[in-house]
Amino acid sequence: MYYVNREQIERRLEIIPELLQVLGQSSRRERPLVERYAAERALHLAVEIVTDVGSYLIDGFIMRDASSYEDIVDIMLDEKVIDSDMHAILVKLVRLRKPLVQDYFLSHPEPEEWAQNLPAVLKTFSTKVFTYLEQEGVYSPLAK
Question: Between helices 16-25 and 33-60, what is the axis angle to 10°?
């Protein structure tokens, strides 16, 4: 039997609706500085949620060790948590971590592009994770 930290996975995935609100409100081209920072913070949290959830899955199901943030996404693909379309998008997303965390900025059009596309991606990611947990017998929607 695997020990998968369902509580931490759920806590992170439960943040997604708030991120969707921020991203939805910040997709306008001309927006105040505070909204730009909010959108970038939402992107940063989205990156962290994807990598944290992936790490919990890797640890809980004793998958191979990840060597990088991108590798976390690769492992989720290899283990069939996500499909190849989702993988391509999530790899691009986790590549934003360095500019957001170390360089402190993104190029101007990038946050707007993500604000438009990320809500659907995060919803699908959340669904795929819960579906995977159900298939592996460690999650039941009724147990919540």
Answer: 150
Instruction: From the candidates 12, 28, 64, 97, give the one annotated as an active-site residue.
Output: 97
Q: What is the pLDDT of residue 122?
A: 94
Q: Are the C-beta atoms of residues 106 and 37 closer than 8 Å to each other?
A: no
Instruction: Identify the band that residue 143 occupies on the pLDDT scale cut at 50, 70 and 90.
Output: low
Q: What is the pLDDT of residue 20?
A: 80
Instruction: Return the amino acid letter for 141.
Output: P
Other CB atoms within a 10 A radius of the CB of residue 126 amount to: 19
97 catalytic per annotation = yes
CA distances from 136 to 69, 89, 91, 114, 125 (A): 24, 24, 24, 31, 17
